[in-house]
Amino acid sequence: MHAAAGDHLVVESNKVDAPRREGEILEVKGADGAPPYVVRWSDGHEGLTFPGADAHVVSG
Q1: pLDDT higher than threshold 90 for residue 18
Q2: Which Pfam families does this UniProt record tie to the protein (predicted)?
């Protein structure tokens, strides 16, 4: 996974009735765009995130 500040992180739900999570990547902590990322989620919460296989990056 490769990202830059301003890109969006989308985490698909692994449950049928749960919504996916989306947030803006504020900071990339890994080398060459690799995780972890500091993300501001759509609900306003900010946190350090280590995305799993159910996540993908959308270029901003």
Answers
A1: no
A2: DUF1918
